[in-house]
Write a structure and sequence with these properties.
alpha/beta, 9-stranded mixed β-sheet, 27% helix, elongated
Length: 366
């Protein structure tokens, strides 16, 4: 979207070409400060998930702000390549990497930065070992435990222990620990989050203890996410939290009011065809509807009734009004799906452009 558009610093928001992806820099810094304050003095730290912003400049800002392990997560080898080439020194690929070409690329990255990768099967571990030996590097491996997503991961403690023994014996690999990822339904309060985090993460801690009981050292227990960023940090044994959505925020996490909505789509009203209806110039190509319709920011009585490819249909309740030329900010239900549609962020401070960041990992699906 807007491939060649790059507004100059100082440009007022009202002069921006729309639709565009904007970040409120005060809100972004606030969200980073919540993390820095939460993990200050704790042994547990955040490993920010770069799939949510896909931008090395933002990853560096997170790390400088504090509360992190000094590295990031990535979902894909291509995302990891962008982070490493952008100067991030530690990247954890939280997906299993099994294709020979991707394993070769992972091994190449391990010659430039600390590379960690998830694993849930012996054959994959052996392939990682061969690639690491061939290139003369070391790849750190973390066993994934399935804890409710019905996706990847070993299914029980015994399988995890057996895999840990095999990984520990393979040349070119350094066994580091265990990981998991969880979700939580509805709009939980803090007590609900604490109970659910303890329940789902218990299996990870049990696996850690069982592996250590075999005399194998573990230094990483990577688990949690935005919804459990605080409560998981209080579970003994957890060393790092894989948080991503907190940074820009999304309506899916609206119950976490300590974080602010930093990332939004700016759209302009281009038509008011009939009473109670207005049309904006941002559709599905600009803001994802993967997890539901976006929400209108700070305009009471205005909701998104429908999206087509390039337009939003706004419904106006009695007393609400929009006119042609008005700007409207949209908050996505899911932030990372929206970010992948854009080439750059436009950072605003007090309503004026402060910085423009290229989203260099956009489209990194491989």
């Amino acid at each position: 979207m807007n491939e060649h558009y790059r507004p100059e610093p100082g440009t007022p928001m009202e002069d921006l070409d729309t639709p565009c992806l904007v970040i409120d820099m005060d809100d972004l810094d606030h969200n980073m400060d919540v993390i820095a304050d939460t993990y200050k003095g704790k042994s547990t730290k955040l490993r920010g998930h770069s799939k949510n912003h896909k931008t090395p400049a933002i990853a560096h800002r997170q790390i400088r702000r504090g509360g992190t392990v000094g590295g990031v997560c990535a979902a894909k080898v291509s995302e990891a390549e962008v982070m490493v080439h952008g100067g991030i020194s530690s990247v954890f690929i939280t997906s299993e990497i099994v294709e020979p070409m991707k394993i070769e690329r992972l091994a190449a990255l391990a010659d430039q930065a600390e590379m960690l990768v998830a694993c849930d099967q012996s054959s994959n571990a052996r392939d990682l070992s061969k690639a690491a030996q061939a290139r003369g590097v070391e790849i750190s491996v973390v066993i994934e435990l399935e804890t409710g997503l019905a996706r990847c991961g070993v299914r029980d403690t015994d399988s995890g222990v057996a895999l840990a023994k095999e990984i520990s014996a393979l040349p070119g690999l350094r066994f580091r620990g265990v990981m998991s990822h969880q979700t939580i339904p509805d709009m939980p309060d803090r007590e609900d989050r604490a109970v659910e985090a303890a329940r789902t993460i218990k299996g990870v801690i049990d696996l850690k203890n069982a592996i250590e009981g075999e005399g194998i050292l573990i230094d990483i227990v990577s688990t949690g996410e935005t919804w459990s960023y605080d409560v998981a940090a209080d579970i003994p044994g957890v060393t790092e939290i894989q948080g991503g959505s907190y940074l820009m925020m999304e309506t899916h996490y609206s119950y976490m009011t300590e974080f602010h909505y930093a990332g939004k789509i700016l759209t302009t009203i281009i038509s008011t065809p009939r009473p109670g209806v207005a049309i904006g110039d941002a559709g599905v190509r600009a803001v994802s509807s993967l997890s539901g319709m976006p929400t209108v920011f700070e305009r009471p009585g205005v909701t998104v009734a429908a999206l087509d490819s390039d337009h939003a249909v706004f419904k106006l309740e009695s007393g609400a009004s929009l006119k042609v030329g008005d700007q409207v900010l949209l908050i996505p239900a899911q932030q990372d799906a929206m970010v992948s549609r854009w080439d750059r962020f436009i950072g605003l401070r007090k309503g004026k452009v402060e910085v423009v960041w290229d989203i260099t990992a956009r489209g990194c699906h491989n």
